[in-house]
Specification:
The complex is a heterodimer of chains A (about 375) and B (about 325). Chain A is of the alpha+beta class. Helices cover about 25% and strands about 35% of the residues of chain A. Chain B is about 65% helix and about 5% strand. Chain B is built from 16 helices and two strands. The relative contact order of chain B is 0.12. The chains are: A alpha+beta (about 375), B mainly alpha (about 325). The structure holds adenosine-5'-triphosphate and magnesium ion (MG). Magnesium ion (MG) binds near residues 42, 43 and 158 of chain A.
Chain lengths: ~375, ~325
């Protein structure tokens, strides 16, 4: 059980930042997901927490103890690698016993703990095999067992499902989540898959190009993205983002569209920006409501059938594409001109220059 | 094969491959492969076989034209290899023949008109070879492993230049430096010592072993060691428990190469040793002896020289044949 605190932690490789100074507190028993595109510094962050990579500045506290310069073996943190990193010359049992041997546990204790953990992960029948003889999913189970068996203060997992087939991923995802609910160990989980992050995380840390963009629950990062990057990155498809001009409570959008700023936003926008200026309007596909008296008009560019709903690709001016969700029953042939409105509580506005979201005093 | 009556219950089909059911094309391909392998093996083995045969031939048989394949085997060659002898006059021979206390070895020498004056220094030379080659191999592989690991795992300032420098010690023909080395060794008092040869062979092999082992260690994913580090081991323990077992193949290959080099080295051994530390390669030709070429003795000496390397290579064959990583990191 542990809380982990990063204070202004940064990592530079030469002159290049892999992680820019970041503050983060990982709560006791929390399942925290580090999410971001390739190369944004997720692995580096994890490696700094584990001690495999030295920080170039900042402090790392584990349960209040400064471990910034502690050796990895002195941190009591387990690490699950993307490609499992099971020792190929040892059997599954020896792999799992390895961390216990480092702690100098007795034979009986080792046997008992291996038994417990292999029952938990259902790998008892595989213990005599070498990693090379195991399937990807079983290798991952053994890797998890090796991490679990020593009952560490915290678990770090670097894309543990990245090397698995799609079908395995889903079931292993559920399994890891179950393990977490059982054990309630502080966990940091790295992924670049936003669906995985939304499904698993108690909180999500969204990173991009070495910077933490937002920290929040899945609902927070989905509904209230703090920046354009988060808005685009979370959700599939991401949030619709339309550049426009704001003036006198109206937003002028491409294609001659004019969107009246909803009342709940009026005062907030008024306080946060000049009377007129560039602005970016954002809304999720499900915030669009097709109705003949809506203020916005668009042309249907394409439509995807998703079974339980239809995803419309709309175009305001024949160029940029928006996504809007329509019910299963509504069919719109390509080229149809339609009008739609936006659910006022689900509309978001972003500063066109800083790319950051404007706060709404009422909406949350 | 008895024909089965239609009424009999059908036996389950056995799908194991039967020779009489393999297609004739496949059998032909297999036949050709076997023939090629045998042919190559024969070509490779002829010199060794010839040497072995010659070692057991008498002097006339050894130089006979056309060469004899069937002959009366004798240990003459081995006796001349392992002993120092003196040529006798006809009277002395007659005198010697009257003696009754002669061993079969003495008689063998006598049959060629010689008397044995003492053991030869071949066993000592072979022992020198074993000491020099063995110890230098242990050092070059051991030191090479540690430096290869460091080059592979740590960021070392100027690592590329250092590696090039290490390799550059190999870029000049060894013979070029024998004279300067000879003078240096004399000045340092390590001329004709085991230490001198071991030092030279170690340094010479080190470049090779660092490069070869670095390749093998680079192949071992860092994650293995990192996993060991977070599992609670120090770097040295991780090296011993993870890197070492995984690089056995590389260590075995490097050992064999270093050993063969140190074992076969001729030029330096000739220049830098005289008597105390002289190894086998420069001494075998000196068996050439008085009064004609002792082909059988040379062959016997070469045969004895071959055996230790064969034993080591054979002992390490398990590791030489095994793949670099036994289980891939993914699967
Ligand atoms: N040892 C290193 N030396 C130099 N640059 C490095 C090193 N390790 C990582 N980097 C750089 O730091 C940045 C962040 O890398 P990191 O591995 O943390 O990204 P990531 O978010 O884990 O990406 P991925 O999803 O591809 O695993 C990358 O631009 C990478 O090229
Ligand atoms: Mg990564």
């Amino acid at each position: 059980m542990a809380t982990i605190e990063l204070q202004q932690v940064e990592k530079k490789f030469g002159e290049v930042y892999a992680v820019k100074p970041m503050d983060l507190t990982i709560r006791d028993g929390e399942f925290l997901v580090l999410l971001g595109p390739s190369g944004c510094g997720k692995t580096t962050t994890l490696r700094m927490i584990s001690g495999l990579e030295a920080v170039t500045a900042g402090r790392i506290l584990l349960n209040g103890r400064d471990v910034t310069w502690a050796h990895p073996s002195d941190r009591d943190i387990a690490f699950v690698f993307q490609f499992f990193a099971l020792y190929p010359h040892l059997s599954a049992r020896q792999n799992i016993a390895f961390p216990l041997q480092a702690q100098g546990e007795s034979r009986q204790t080792i046997d008992r703990r291996i038994k417990e953990v292999s029952q938990l992960l259902r790998i008892e029948h595989l213990l005599h095999l070498r990693p090379g003889a195991l399937s990807g999913g079983d290798q991952q189970r053994v890797a998890l067992a090796r991490a679990l068996v020593r009952r560490p203060a915290a678990f770090l997992m670097d894309e543990p499902l990245g090397a698995l087939d799609a079908e395995f991923r889903e079931s292993m995802r559920a399994e890891i989540k179950r393990l977490h609910l059982d054990q309630h160990a502080t966990s940091v989980y790295v992924t670049h898959d936003q669906i995985e992050a939304m499904a698993m995380g108690d909180r999500i840390v969204v990173m991009s190009s070495a910077v933490v963009q937002q920290v929040g629950t899945p609902a927070e990062v989905y509904h209230n993205p703090r920046s354009l990057f988060v808005a685009r990155f979370i959700g599939s498809p991401g949030m619709n983002l339309i550049p426009g001009d704001y003036a006198d409570g109206m937003v002028n959008l491409p294609g001659g569209n004019c969107y009246p700023v909803p009342p709940i936003w009026q005062r907030s926008l008024h306080n946060q920006m000049a009377r007129a200026g560039r602005i970016i309007l954002g809304f999720r596909p499900e915030a669009a409501q097709i109705s003949s008296d809506g203020p916005l008009h668009a042309e249907v560019y394409a439509a995807d059938l998703h079974g339980s709903y239809n995803m419309l690709h709309l175009s305001l001016d024949g160029k940029d594409i928006l996504h809007a969700r329509a019910s299963r029953q509504e069919h719109f042939p390509i080229g149809t001109k339609l009008r739609f409105d936006l659910h006022p509580e689900w509309v978001r506005f972003f500063n066109a220059d800083t790319e950051l979201a404007y706060d709404c005093e009422v909406a949350s | 094969m008895a024909a089965q009556s239609p009424a009999a219950p059908r036996l389950p089909v056995n799908f194991s491959t039967r020779v009489d059911e393999v297609s004739s094309r496949a059998r032909l391909a297999r036949f050709i492969r076997v023939v090629v392998v045998i042919a190559v093996a024969i070509i490779m083995l002829i010199p060794v076989t010839w040497m072995t045969l010659t070692a057991f031939k008498s002097r006339p048989d050894a130089v006979a034209v056309p060469p004899k394949i069937f002959f009366q085997p004798t240990l003459e060659g081995f006796v001349s290899l392992l002993t120092d002898r003196r040529q006798l006059t006809t009277e002395q021979i007659a005198e010697e023949q009257k003696r009754t206390d002669l061993t079969w070895i003495d008689q063998l020498a006598l049959s060629r008109g010689q008397v044995i004056t003492g053991p030869s220094d071949y066993p000592q030379r072979l022992l020198n070879s074993i000491i020099v080659a063995g110890v230098s191999t242990v050092f070059s592989v051991g030191l090479g492993l540690l430096s290869a690991y460091s080059f592979s795992r740590f960021s070392i300032a100027g690592a590329g230049d250092l590696l090039f420098f290490i390799l550059s010690t190999r870029m000049l023909p060894p013979v070029v430096v024998t004279i300067p080395l000879f003078l240096m060794y004399r000045a340092l008092g390590i001329y004709d010592t085991h230490f001198g040869l071991i030092l030279l062979y170690t340094v010479f092999n080190l470049s090779f072993s660092v490069w070869l082992l670095k390749g093998f260690i680079d192949e071992i994913p860092r994650e293995y060691e990192e996993a060991a580090l977070v599992d609670g081991y120090t770097r040295l323990q991780a090296f011993r428990k993870i890197v070492l077992p995984q690089s056995l193949t590389g260590i075995a290959a490097t050992t064999v190469f270093c050993l063969i080099f140190a074992w076969n080295e001729y030029a330096f051994a000739l220049m830098l040793s005289a008597d105390r530390a002289r190894t086998a390669p420069p001494s075998i030709p000196s068996v050439l002896g008085t009064g004609g070429i002792e082909s059988a003795a040379i062959a016997a000496g070469s045969l004895g020289f071959l055996i230790p390397v064969v034993i080591v290579t054979f002992a390490l064959r398990k590791y030489l044949l095994r793949g670099v990583t036994f289980g891939a990191i993914r699967q």
